[in-house]
Amino acid sequence: MKEPLKQFVPSTVCLECDGCCRFKESDSDWRPHISPEEIAAVGASGLAAEIFSKHPFSAEGRVQTAGCGAGGEHLCAFFNPADSTCRIYGQRPFDCELYPFVLVRKANKTMVCVHLNCPHIQQTIGTPEYKQYVKYLQGFFQRPETLESLRKNPALAGDYPAYLRELKELFVLSI
């Protein structure tokens, strides 16, 4: 599953938003999941090894938070608040690559949802561009290598019971 995803949200939009990579609680359900393979790949870089030593991953395979932002929020350990960028962008977790689309586990099913709180989603949902990207994701999640990676790493799909109103189900995966 290491082939990078096409990005739906333009980076210029992401850099101006103050939503992602910032969390209200240090143990937020929105912290990205990360697979053992991703930990190994990111850990091979010097910067990531330095960050890992200060902020290891949680036992359930989620990125830890570091320090607090201006509003008391907790920041992803890889987030650079000075310029709103990711310090490991080229090796960021799949969960981060996929966002604002989210893997969700619900009632013994794994599905792809979209997070309706993303400002770009609010502006583009229902547009031809959005519909085309959802079709692209459906194809991506039908690839044998993608499905195998998800079978090996079921923790990449999160439980978001408190946030179901913020998520719109797009399609169910056959894993």
Detailed description of the structure:
The chain is an alpha+beta fold and 175 residues long. Strands 1-3-2 form a three-stranded antiparallel sheet, with no helix packed on it. Strands 6-7-8 form a three-stranded antiparallel sheet, with no helix packed on it. It has a two-stranded antiparallel sheet with strand order 4-5. The mean pLDDT is 86. Helices cover 32% and strands 18% of the residues. The chain folds into two domains: 11-92, no CATH class; 98-172, no CATH class. The chain is built from seven helices and eight strands. A hairpin with a 2-residue loop joins β6 (101-106) and β7 (109-115).
Short description:
With 175 residues, the chain is of the alpha+beta class.
Shape label: globular
Strand order of the largest sheet: 1-3-2
Number of helices in the DSSP assignment: 7
Uncertain spans: none
**Count of the domains:** 2
Distance between the termini: 14 Å
Q: Hey, roughly how much beta strand do the residues contain?
A: 15-25%
SSE string: HEHHEEEEHEEHHHE
Look at the helices and sheets and give the structural class.
alpha+beta
Descriptive keywords:
175 residues, 3-stranded antiparallel β-sheet, 8 strands, 18% strand
What's the SSE blueprint?
Elements: H1 11-16, E1 22-23, H2 36-43, H3 46-54, E2 65-68, E3 74-76, E4 79-80, E5 85-86, H4 94-98, E6 101-106, E7 109-115, H5 119-124, H6 128-140, H7 144-152, E8 167-172
Antiparallel strand pairs: 1-3, 2-3, 4-5, 6-7, 7-8
